[in-house]
Amino acid sequence: MAYKAIAVTVPGKVLVSGGYLIVDRPNIGISLAVSARFHCVGVAEAKTETDNETLQVMVDSPQFKKKWRYLLRDTPDGVVIQGDVDQNKFVEAALLLSIAYTWKQRANTTHLHLHLQADDEFYGNAGPGKGKTGLGSSAGLVSSVVACVFKHFSGDVSLSTIHAIAQIAHCKAQGKIGSGFDVASAMYGSVRYIRYTPTPVQKYITDLHPTGPVRFEALDSVISGFDHDIVPLSFPDNLCLVLGDISKGSETPGMVANVFKWKNCNVENSNVMWKTSADANEAVYTELRNMFVESQENPERYHAALDNLKTKVSTEWGEEGVFCKLRDAMIRSRLALREIGRASDTEIEPAQQTDLLEATLRSPGVLAAACPGAGGYDAIFAVCLGSSSRDLLTKTWNEYTSPTQGTVRALEIGIDQGNGLKAQVFTSKDAVLNAYPSYDV
What are the distances in angstroms from CA 391 to CA 119, 245, 397? Predict the structure, then answer.
């Protein structure tokens, strides 16, 4: 039998607008896909001496020095999964749901070997197993595993189905219903995102035991009800996204709970602030889209303006043109979320982060800076006009000192201009090793 390996990769993400509100449908979020990627390489085998009614899955994660073994089988009630004692709940949920959905299409496959690998930028200063940078490592893991299973067993399935399975699996592993923008960006790339109605997914994962059984019909019914709104977003030419990894973290779930507790207890005031933030986020989307159109339809004017502004601090740019309009929209988005943080007594933008952000904005060519996602101490991001402005900002961060902030390291990431999920077929193990030196399947 000819050798065949399928590698699936998905991008990480940075939520640059829409923190907290993105959980509250129908508010939007702007999630940018980045060049750092999560990888899953799979090889399927059919061993005649093995029971065809079971599927054995071996998962190898060299970065975490872990190997996991799972056995899946069909029962009258649905597909179930068994694993060793020390399992990974994200891998387990991804395998259970994707394999249950494709069980009848797996033909005579008895063994599946998966190799997991994340680009270093997902883990930042601390390294794998010790820290994360907020690029969506768990969403990347689940999305790449689910997609790799589908590429092996059901290659013609729609991306929307793969996305829905990955989203349900991610919710199951987390034990809660998140907004889902991280899985959406893993699948589709940079997007304007409105979350799905959470109730059907919540009921499904609440009733589902971690090891199954999973029935195709019940899972397919949940998938058919997904009503998220995803609009692909193209990033304008020569804009650079820079992420600053900070050696201090915060607990996002606790922050989200705190904000929504305040919102529910202060309805009138919170509704006003919520609308201010929502309007600002819509403006960010509009101006990003307008800037992309300008870069495509009037490239000479666009690049002339960029070259003129990239050597100046953004407060010196004036008030007209696409760059100034996006700058102003990003400022409104940042300040609106910061006010929600102050009103709810939540450190969405702590004072130390404000100092760092203001220092960032004093670097020439920086269009915007803010805390991504739910905010806190984990990281900041900046949007720069071209590589020279990015290099100046990196120098600023390297020289920045704060007794409470720790170190700031610029992550070597860029905007992923692809379409999110990518798959590649390898026809020899040598070809796989060239791409993934730690591969040992």
Answer: 21, 16, 10
- Record the tokens describing residue 52, joined without a space: 């065809």
The count of C-alpha atoms lying within 13 angstroms of the C-alpha of 181, restricted to the half-sphere facing its C-beta, is 33
Structure tokens at 108: 């005579």
Burial (0-12, 13-18, 19+ Cβ within 10 Å), 209: exposed
What are the start-end ranges of the H helices in 106-241? Answer: 137-153, 159-174, 181-188, 199-207, 216-224
| 3-state class (DSSP) for residue 430 | helix
Given CA atoms 373, 376, 379, 381 in this order, what sign does their dihedral have?
positive
- pLDDT the model gives residue 328: 97
How many helices, marked H, and strands, marked E, lie in the chain? 13, 13
Interaxial angle between packed helices 159-174 and 137-153, expressed in degrees from 0 to 180 and rounded to the nearest 10 = 130
Residue 436 has what pLDDT? Answer: 86
The predicted structure's pLDDT at residue 417: 79
**Contact (Cβ atoms closer than 8 angstroms) between residue 186 and residue 10:** yes
* DSSP single-letter state for residue 176: S
Per-residue pLDDT, 33? 96
DSSP string over 74-135: EETTEEEEEE-SS--HHHHHHHHHHHHHHGGGSTT--EEEEEEEE-GGGTTTT-TTT---SS
Cβ atoms 414, 34 nearer than 8 A? yes
Collapse the DSSP code of 415 into the 3-class scheme (helix H, G, I; strand E, B; otherwise coil) and give the result: strand
In the chain, which stretches have pLDDT less than 50? none
Q: Whole-number mean pLDDT of the chain?
A: 91
Distances (CA, A) of 142 to 65, 88, 278: 18, 11, 30
